[in-house]
């Protein structure tokens, strides 16, 4: 209680500073590739990043072979998924198998690599012009 008899209001506790980046600074899961900064009249801009999920989005509608490793699996912890890329999010990939009609929601945390039988659409700065 405060000196005047009124109950004391508790101040919200701030968590201690962390050595880990805040949520806003965390990159999406999956690998990222950085290009070097460009010069714009003496001022440098931050490096552009191209994340796996952005590359997968650029290749929506293409047939992909996706290789994943599931840690802790007793047998056959490596699995191949083959299908058409329907969507890719920050932490997941949706594939549809044209042979079976089965759709897979795959967490990107398990992604080893993906291969394509055709040219891969790629833009170092996502949202830029694909190559």
UniProtKB/TrEMBL annotation:
Region Disordered, residue ranges: 1-51
Classification via InterPro entries: Spore_coat_GerQ
Keyword Transmembrane helix part of the UniProt annotation: no
Compositional bias segments (type: Low complexity): 20-32
Keywords: Capsid protein, Virion
A Pfam family that the UniProt record links to this protein: Spore_GerQ
Biased amino acid composition, Polar residues: 33-51
Database matches in NCBIfam families: spore_gerQ
Protein name stated in the entry: Spore coat protein GerQ
Annotated organism of origin: Pradoshia eiseniae
């Amino acid at each position: 209680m405060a000196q005047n008899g009124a109950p004391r209001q508790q101040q919200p506790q701030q968590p201690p500073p962390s050595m880990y980046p805040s949520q806003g600074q965390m990159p999406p899961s999956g690998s990222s590739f950085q290009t070097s900064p460009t010069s714009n009249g003496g001022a440098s801009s931050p490096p552009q990043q191209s994340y796996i999920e952005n590359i997968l989005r650029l290749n929506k509608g293409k047939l992909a072979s996706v290789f994943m490793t599931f840690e802790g699996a007793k047998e056959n912890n490596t699995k191949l998924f083959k299908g058409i890329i329907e969507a890719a999010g920050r932490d997941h990939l949706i594939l549809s198998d044209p042979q079976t009609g089965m759709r897979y929601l795959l967490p990107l945390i398990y992604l080893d690599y993906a291969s394509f039988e055709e040219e891969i659409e790629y833009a170092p700065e996502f949202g830029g012009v694909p190559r």
